[in-house]
Design a protein that fits this description.
321 residues; 6-stranded mixed sheet; Immunoglobulin-like; alpha+beta; 5-stranded mixed sheet; 3 helices; elongated
Length: 321
C-alpha cells in the first residue's frame, strides 16, 4: 500500500502552529530588568496563593512622630499598605512619594501622586513571606517638611520576665513564657553561652530539664538540681510561620550561705558597737575615779592645811596671853 501524500498547505499550517506555540511559551518566561515590573509580577503571583492584609493611615498635616500602626502577623500575607494625606494648606496639584523599609528608601517605590478630592492617597503592596520582610515600613510624601507615617510589622510579642529569677543551690525552678494574642506553632528554649545560644533538649537530659506547654500559649521550663553554673540568660522562642518571637529570663542561683551574709555583717557591726560602748564606759569610769581621787586628796590637804593654821594661831594667842 502506497503512503498517502500530505498536501503541502497542510504541512505549512502545522509548522506555523508549532512555531507560534513555541514563541508564546518563550515569551511567557521572559523577565524584565525593570524592578517595578518584577515587583508587579511577584505580587500577582503571591496574591494567588496568599491572603491580603489591608492597612491605611490618615495623615492630617505634616509628620507626627506618633503616627504609626502596629501590625502583628503570624502567616504569609500580601501587605496592602496605604497613606492618605489631608489637611494641608495650599496643596499642590501633585507630590512625589516613596516608601522606606527600616529607614532606607525602597528602590523603585518613588512615584508622583496626583491630588484628588483635596487629598493625596499613596498605596503599595509588600509580600511578607519570612522574617526578613518584617520591620518598619514608612510612606513618605516629599514635602517641606516631609509627611510620613510608619507601619511596624512584627510577629506577636512573647512575654518573658523583666526581673531576675532568684533561687538557691539544690532547688528546682520553673521558668514561664507567654504568648497572649496568637497561638504559636511551637516553642523552643535556649541557654545563652557567651554569644551563642544552645538549644535545651529536655528529652536528652530528663533528670535536669522538663518542658511543658499549656493551651499552646504558655510554655514552661523546669530546671532541677540547681547549681551556680546554671546561672545565666535563658530565651524562650515562640515559633510562627514567618518568624519567631522571644522572651528573656535571667536566672541567678545563690549559695545558702549568701542569705546569712547580711546577718553576719549586722552581728559584726553590733559586736563592734557594743565593744566601743564598753571601752567608752570603762574609760569614762576610770577618768571619773581619777577625778574623785584627786578631789579627795585636795580636800585632805586642805583639812591638813587648815589644822596647821589653827594650831599656829592657838600658839600665837597663848604666847600673847
Amino acid at each position: 500500500m502506497l503512503p498517502t501524500r500530505i498536501p503541502s498547505f497542510v504541512i505549512a499550517a502545522l509548522l506555523a502552529t508549532l512555531s507560534a506555540s513555541h514563541f508564546t511559551t518563550v515569551s511567557g518566561n521572559i523577565t524584565t530588568d525593570s524592578p517595578i515590573e518584577n515587583e508587579e509580577i511577584r505580587n500577582n503571583t503571591s496574591e494567588s496563593i496568599m491572603n491580603t492584609t489591608i492597612k491605611n493611615i490618615i495623615i492630617k498635616g505634616y509628620t507626627n512622630p506618633w503616627i504609626k500602626e502596629n501590625l502583628e502577623l503570624t502567616h504569609q500575607t500580601i501587605l496592602d499598605l496605604s497613606c492618605t494625606l489631608t489637611s494641608l494648606p495650599d496643596l499642590p496639584a501633585s507630590v512625589t512619594g516613596y516608601w522606606k523599609k527600616d529607614g532606607k528608601e525602597i528602590p523603585g517605590s518613588q512615584t508622583v501622586i496626583e491630588k484628588k478630592d483635596e487629598r493625596f492617597h499613596f498605596q503599595n503592596k509588600f509580600p511578607i513571606t519570612d522574617s526578613s520582610h518584617l520591620g518598619n515600613y514608612s510612606c513618605v510624601f516629599d514635602l517641606r517638611p516631609e509627611a510620613e507615617a510608619r507601619f511596624i510589622v512584627t510577629v506577636p510579642h512573647t512575654e518573658g520576665r523583666e526581673k531576675p529569677l532568684i533561687s538557691y543551690e539544690g532547688d528546682a525552678i520553673v521558668m514561664v513564657c507567654k504568648a497572649h494574642s496568637h497561638l504559636p506553632n511551637g516553642w523552643t528554649w535556649y541557654r545563652l553561652n557567651g554569644t551563642e545560644r544552645n538549644i535545651i533538649n529536655a528529652t536528652l537530659n530528663p533528670e535536669k530539664f522538663t518542658t511543658a506547654v499549656e493551651k499552646g500559649k504558655k510554655a514552661s521550663l523546669k530546671i532541677m538540681g540547681l547549681t551556680q553554673e546554671d546561672s545565666g540568660i535563658f530565651w524562650c522562642s515562640a515559633i510562627y510561620d514567618i518568624g519567631s518571637s522571644e522572651g528573656r529570663i535571667h536566672l541567678k542561683v545563690l549559695s545558702y550561705t549568701v542569705p546569712l551574709k547580711p546577718f553576719l555583717a549586722i552581728a559584726v557591726e553590733v559586736l563592734i558597737l557594743v565593744s566601743l560602748i564598753l571601752i567608752y564606759e570603762h574609760h569614762t569610769k576610770k577618768k571619773q575615779t581619777i577625778t574623785e581621787n584627786g578631789k579627795d586628796s585636795e580636800h585632805t590637804e586642805k583639812l591638813t592645811s587648815d589644822g596647821s593654821n589653827g594650831l599656829r594661831d592657838g600658839t600665837a594667842r597663848h604666847r600673847n596671853v
